[in-house]
Amino acid sequence: MKAIAYYHSLPINDPESLQDIELPEPVAGKRDLLVEVKAISVNPVDTKVRQNVSPEDGAAKVLGWDVAGVVKAVGSDVSLFKVGDKVYYAGSIARAGGNSERHVVDERIVGHMPKSLSFAEAAALPLTAITAWELLFERLQVREGKTDQGQSLLIVGAAGGVGSILTQLASQLTALKVIGTASRPQTQRWVRELGADLVIDHSQPLSEELKRADHTQVTHVASLTETDQHFEQLVEALAPQGKLALIDDPKALDVTRLKRKSLSLHWEFMYTRSLFETADMLEQHKLLNRVAELIDAGTLKTTVGEHFGTINAANLRRAHELLESGKSRGKIVLEGF
What we know:
With about 325 residues, this protein is an alpha/beta fold. The chain has two domains: about 1-130 and about 270-335, Quinone Oxidoreductase, Chain A, domain 1; about 140-270, NAD(P)-binding Rossmann-like Domain (Rossmann fold), CATH 3.40.50.720. The protein has helices at about 45-50, 120-125, 125-140, 160-175, 185-195, 205-210, 225-235, 270-275, 285-295, 315-325; strands at about 1-5, 20, 30-40, 60, 65-75, 85-90, 100-105, 110, 150-155, 175-180, 200, 220-225, 240-245, 265, 305, 330-335. The strands form three sheets. Strands 3, 5, 6, 7, 8, 15 and 16 form a seven-stranded mixed sheet that branches. It has a six-stranded parallel sheet with strand order 11-10-9-12-13-14, with helices on both faces. It starts with a strand and ends with a strand.
């Protein structure tokens, strides 16, 4: 089968950083689905793994943790899906990625694809939807519904993949006042369209931007990018007993700064459940099904920002390059082999 992989960690401008290759057909385990991959999307994790993780023993390493496709075969213990089902999922970082014609994935982290979306539109959602949902409702412990008035959420990097779905979830499903950050006119417009009540510029000091907007403090922060750069400003912006959640990888944070305000720190990593096969691993299946229902009801919308064409090495290199530039908006999708 066709796949896109790498053998050495190389800069994305090197033609060998991602290559078109042939691999043997994968075989589904007991709880696995064998999926025919129709569309994929690209995430910052793809670029981080490519840059920092060298393949073992000279083997090809396949990236890609957002897939939409069709079930072609099921393992002996599969109970949630059948052959022919349209599915979408983010997969497990402990297994081969989905940048291949066929892919195997544990059924407990797979959702039924939204009926109203194309494969490309659906592929934009799984990883970021899981991350945003877990961050908002499990890490920050925000409650669904419109009863908790007076609380607010600052989303740093609201125009990116996770920010694009988090902005929608917070504005549509909670009572939070949603404040997104974006630094360019087109990304600021995108965040407003997704439902943010207020958009500020993260290229400026955040606490000053909030004051200019007549909003001196927030109760919750979702820091999705450059947390180390903004950390002091975030601590200043948070109200006493507020909550700070992050998804990126700052080299160091002085957490003693949180003590005076009794602030809590939360990390979200959507691969935790699949990596450790936690007892509640099935929650990601339920979560993706719920997101699909919200999409089909018109409550949420897909976050496709760019369609880069066919799934091949050249187009994936373009996608990695754009992600590494920090100037992407929404999600980059590719479709078909």
